[in-house]
Amino acid sequence: MTTRAANPNTTPQATTFADSGDSGDWIARSLKAVWHPCTQMKHHERLPLIPVSRGSGAWLYDRADNRYMDAISSWWVNLFGHANPRINAALKDQLDTLEHAMLAGCTHEPAVELAERLNALTDHTLGHAFFASDGASAVEIALKMSFHAWRNRGHDDKREFVCVANSYHGETIGALGVTDVALFKDAYDPLIRHAHVVASPDARVAQPGESAAQQAERALDSVRALFEARAGKIAALIVEPLVQCAAGMAMHDPSYLQGLRTLCDRFDVHLIADEIAVGCGRTGTFFACEQAGIWPDLLCLSKGISGGYLPLSIVLSRDEIYEAFYDDDTARGFLHSHSYTGNPLACRAALATLDLFASDNVLVENVRKSDVLRQALAPLADHPHVRHLRSRGTIFAFDAHIADAQHARTFSRRFFENALKRELLLRPIGTTVYLMPPYILDDEQLHWLAARTRETFDATLAETL
C-alpha cells in the first residue's frame, strides 16, 4: 500500500469511499454483520462508512489510502495520535510479560503503579483506584459506591441522586438514570431509576448582561433549594466539570464547581466528578476540577487515560469512602467486578500516556497550541450563522444558527459528509460544531484544521441557503 505524506496543504479529495479497491466489499460486510454504536443503521443506506485500514499520527486512512484528520480524537479518546511509537513500545513490552491476570486475589505492577500515580496527581486526596473497562461502568461504580458507603454508615435513606440538566453520563441503565438527554433515555424510561435534575450552569443561557459566573450562581440556587428539601435522602450529585460535552459542549464557569463542593459539604452529599471526557488535559489542566481548586469525593476517568488504545476506566475515591467498606463482613465490601478489571495492557498504555504528559510538557504546550487554534478560528465569531464561539482548554465549539427546522435536523449528517470531502473527521452534536483534536498537531496543521472547518461549514450551509 502506498503511504501518502501528511501534508495539510493538499487540495480536498472528492473520492467516493466505496469506489476504490476492496472498500465497497468491506463496507457491505460491515453493514451486514456489525451493529454500529450510537447509530440508526438505516441512515447508512446513504451515509458513508469509512473503511479504516490504519492510523498514523493525527490521520486515519481508508482502504483506498484517502486520509482524514481525526479532529475529534475518535470520540475524544486519542490524545497523542494513532500508532504512537512510545505507547506502542510500552504495549509490546507488556505483551511479552503479562497480558492479563484477574485482579481479585492478585495484583500486578501496571495496576499498582497507575493507581499510585493517579493518587499523586490528585495531591493524594483520591487515594484508592477501582478499575473497570468503560465510562458508563465507571459511573455505575461511583453511584453504587456512594449509595453503599452511606448504607454501611447507617444512612439507608440516602439513595437518591442528582444530575445537571442536559447531562450525559453513559447509556447503561444506572448511568441513564443520571443522564438528561431524551434521545438516549426515553426508550428505556420504564427501566430507569430517575434522578433529580437541577439547572444547568451553561454559559450560553446567561441573561443579557449576565456573566458566566453569575449564570453559574443562579444554577447553584437550584441545587441549594433541592438540598434544603431532600439532603437527608440524597446520596450524591454527579457533574461533568467545566464542559457538558454531549449537551453540545456546554461550558460553565469554574465557580460552579466551587459552589457544588461547598453545598455538598454543608448538606452531607457526595460529589461525583465525571471526568471521563474532560479529564486527561482536555480542559487545560490534567483534571478539570483543578481549575476550581476542589476535589470531588469520587472521580471517574476513561477515554483519554489509555491514550485511546484500550478500554479502561477508573474510579478514584477518598479515604472516607474506601474505609466505609473496610470490614470483616464480606457483605459490607464493594462486591463489584469486571473480568478484565485492571487489565495489565490497558494499565500499561495508561502509564505510557502519563509518561508522555510528564516528558513532553504537554499541558504547557497545549496552552500555546490552543491559543493558535483560537486565533485561527476567531473570524468565525463574525459569521452570520455562528453563535457562541467558545473554548475551554483544547475543546473548541460553536453553534450553527439555522432557521429552518428540517435543515437543522439534517445539519450534522450533511456536515459530516462535507468534512470527509475535505479530509476531516468531524461529527457535530446536533447543530454544534466542535473540535477536540489530539495534542500532537503542529501550528501548520492547526491553521489547516481551522480553514477546513470553515470551508466545511460554508459548504454545508450553501446546500440549504
Task: Identify the notable features of this structure and list them briefly.
465 residues; alpha/beta; Aspartate Aminotransferase, domain 1; Aspartate Aminotransferase, domain 2; 2 domains; seven-stranded mixed beta sheet; 14 helices; 16 strands; 37% helix; globular
Largest sheet: 7 strands, mixed
The low-confidence parts are 1-6, 8-20
- What proportion of the residues form beta strands (DSSP E)? 5-15%
The radius of gyration computed from the alpha-carbon positions, rounded to a whole number of angstroms, is 22 Å
Biggest sheet strand order reads 4-12-11-10-7-5-6
Report how far apart the termini are: 41 Å
Shape: globular
CATH fold category name of the largest domain = Aspartate Aminotransferase, domain 2
Helical residues, percent: 25-40%
Going by CATH, the homologous superfamily of the largest domain would be: Type I PLP-dependent aspartate aminotransferase-like (Major domain)
Description of the structure:
- With 465 residues, the protein is an alpha/beta fold.
- The chain folds into two domains: 23-70 and 361-462, Alpha-Beta Complex (Aspartate Aminotransferase, domain 1), CATH 3.90.1150; 88-359, Aspartate Aminotransferase, domain 2 (3-Layer(aba) Sandwich), CATH 3.40.640.10.
- Helix content is 37%, strand content 15%.
- It has 14 helices and 16 strands.
- It has a seven-stranded mixed sheet with strand order 4-12-11-10-7-5-6, sandwiched between helices.
- The two termini are 41 Å apart.
